[in-house]
Amino acid sequence: MLWSDPENKPPSFLRETQAMLRRSSVLLALAMVVLMLVVGAR
């Protein structure tokens, strides 16, 4: 890597988008678990 290469930092909107996707995937996984429990309880 050369000293003139730009730093490997993603822009702020990309970091925010990644964080939002991470949160939504956790919420989706929790919703699936709750759904399976509700369906299994019937």
Automatic annotation (TrEMBL):
Keyword Transmembrane listed? The answer is yes
Q: Which InterPro entries match?
A: MmpB-like
* Pfam families in alphabetical order: MmpB
Report the NCBIfam families cross-referenced here.
morpho_MmpB
The organism named in the record is Streptomyces omiyaensis
Q: Which UniProt keywords apply?
A: Membrane, Transmembrane, Transmembrane helix
Q: Which domain of life is it from?
A: Bacteria
Q: What is the name of the protein in this document?
A: Morphogenic membrane protein MmpB
List residues traversing the bilayer: 20-41
